[in-house]
Write a structure and sequence with these properties.
This protein has 301 residues and is an all-alpha fold. The chain has one domain (8-300). 76% of the residues lie in helices and 0% in strands. The protein contains 16 helices and no strands. It has helices at residues 2-5, 9-42, 45-51, 56-65, 77-86, 91-104, 106-115, 120-144, 167-202, 205-209, 215-229, 236-242, 244-247, 249-261, 264-273, 276-300. α4 (56-65) runs parallel beside α6 (91-104) and α14 packs antiparallel against α16.
């Protein structure tokens, strides 16, 4: 304890924020890793091809809306997406799921509804914005850019056939894969959280808020703030609601949309699995779409 008492207050605050983010995020990373392990054992490429729609646009819509019934926080979604891609789910199906699942799942929608005083308006605006970004990303991957987004060293050479294993062996193997995934992904979460918590302490947020003189600047500032804070999507609506009187509807909506799609901790996890070119495309398209959408929201009022 004497060692901690000798540390500067800013360092102690940094450690406190780091621990709070880790405690908040780890359960979702664990859940995502467990789902990833069961996908590895029970989902085969043939099964994927059997149930996915044949039409490319319908596959985009499937990935966009499946988050309603297959929810995931952004903290745990990267292992799930990585496993889906390895099972030959098209990237133009998986990436829309990556964009929408942390936003359109029932828990986040209810939190958004509650945080803004039981407002269906904010719930609808957040839902619509996420869907538009996801469909745009899906269309780009399906028709315009390279849909191969996994790093070569993240792609398996062959697929294991677990159909001959007994049921208890399958469950054991699923949890074994989940443990490997958890520790592999968790280290990137730790690095990302260290950076995010440090920026919350050492980057003065009052400087950022003072720059938001017009709507476009305020939107960009709020997106940067969401990236820095790296909040979980189950909690960010309450922070957004507290900023509503200072910034207005459009910047707060940008805060609620970009945070679950791109923050420091999930960016670090994306770097582990995805090609740098795709990460740049994902971030740039998401940012542009959200800025345009929120400007329109501001105009409509």
């Amino acid at each position: 304890m004497a060692i901690f008492q000798q540390l500067p207050d800013s360092v102690l605050q940094w450690f406190a924020i780091f621990i709070s983010i880790i405690i908040e995020a780890l359960p979702f990373v664990l859940l995502g890793s467990i789902l990833s392990g069961f996908i590895e054992i029970y989902v085969t490429p043939d099964l994927v091809q059997k149930y996915l729609p044949k039409n490319r646009f319908l596959r985009i819509l499937f990935g966009t809306f499946v988050g309603f019934i297959f929810p995931s926080c952004e903290c745990g979604i990267i292992p799930i997406i990585n496993r889906f891609l390895e099972k030959k789910v098209p990237s133009y199906t998986a990436v829309p799921f990556l964009a929408t699942a942390p936003i359109i799942n029932p828990i986040v929608l209810f939190a958004t509804y509650s945080a803004f005083g039981n407002s269906l308006r904010f719930l609808f605006l957040r839902l619509l914005g996420a869907i538009l970004v996801a469909i745009t990303l899906g269309i780009l991957l399906a028709f315009l850019v390279d849909e191969d987004i996994l790093k070569e060293n993240a792609q398996p050479v062959h697929f294991h056939d677990y159909s001959g294993e007994k049921w208890y062996q399958k469950i054991f193997l699923a949890f074994a894969h989940a443990i490997d995934e958890f520790f592999d992904t968790g280290r990137y979460l730790v690095f990302g959280t260290l950076i995010a918590s440090a920026m919350q302490i050492y980057l003065p947020t009052h400087f950022l808020t003072s720059l938001g003189h017009n709507r476009l600047t305020a939107i960009l500032i709020m997106m940067l703030l969401a990236f820095i804070l790296s909040l979980c999507s189950e909690a960010d609506a309450f922070i957004g609601a507290s900023l509503l009187s200072s910034f207005g509807v459009a910047p707060v909506m940008a805060f609620l949309l970009i945070g679950p799609m791109v923050d420091i901790k999930n960016l670090m996890m994306m770097i582990k699995s995805f090609k740098p070119r795709f990460i740049a495309q994902f971030i740039s398209v998401s940012v542009v779409m959200i800025v345009v959408y929120c400007l329109l929201v501001g105009v409509v009022g």
